[in-house]
Write a structure and sequence with these properties.
8 helices; 7 strands; globular; Rossmann fold; alpha/beta; 7-stranded mixed β-sheet
């Protein structure tokens, strides 16, 4: 599985603010006072946003890039945030009300263990919100994937139905929504701005995986 370098993560983090806010506009859960898990947290920016603007009780993030986690710890300051290096939920991390990931699922070669790890980490009634734009139904990312899959050791593009099936198998109830994106910075990710609009408005979706309450 390919994970970005610290420099790539830093550049990516700088440009993701508008997506993070779209994610928070899309979810149907109140994160105030909750314990939150961020899978593939990069430099921790999303969790810092949740602390400073949404008053979460605590945030935990993991990422396989050690330099990225070093940055996340440094940037967290005195915020109630914990970061660890890892490819999956670290041992002992549990009791989360809400979990998030942003463009992580398409990197994972076997989704079932990831789904099971998140399921174990959530409290009964907890929810995992996974935002995903790189998938088989997104033609604007197909060429990028074809050019980079071998170099970055990416799995084949997932169909959203297959992603949903992997999470349903471990007991999640799945739902999907278009991301509530407003204005899009005109320089983001696309060779043409119309293609960028198509990607963010039509193909970048939020998957909601809910754990049963009982």
């Amino acid at each position: 599985m390919y994970w970005q370098s610290g420099a790539e993560d830093a550049a990516m983090q700088d440009e993701h603010g508008f997506v993070w806010r779209a994610m928070l506009d899309t979810i149907d859960a109140d994160v105030t006072g909750k314990r939150v898990l961020d899978a593939g947290c990069n430099r921790g920016g999303f969790l810092r946003l949740l602390c400073t603007e949404h008053a979460i009780a605590a945030g935990y993030g993991y990422d396989p890039a050690s330099g990225t986690i070093d940055d996340a710890r440094r940037l967290a300051g005195d915020l109630p945030l914990v970061f660890e290096v890892g490819h999956t939920v670290p041992d002992g991390w549990e009791g989360f009300d809400v979990a998030f990931s942003h463009e992580v699922l398409y990197l994972i070669h076997d989704l079932a263990p990831h789904a099971a790890a998140i399921h174990r980490a959530l409290v009964p009634g907890g929810v995992y919100y996974a935002t995903m734009g790189v998938h088989a139904a997104a033609p604007t990312t197909a060429d990028w994937h074809a050019c980079n899959a071998e170099r970055l050791d990416l799995p084949a593009l997932y169909a959203l139905d297959d992603v949903i099936a992997s999470f349903a198998t471990v007991g999640f109830e799945a739902a999907v929504a278009r991301l509530k994106v407003g204005f899009i910075p005109a320089t983001r990710h696309a060779e043409s701005f119309p293609a960028s609009l198509e990607y963010y408005y039509d193909h970048k979706v939020m998957l909601r995986f809910a754990k049963a309450a009982g």
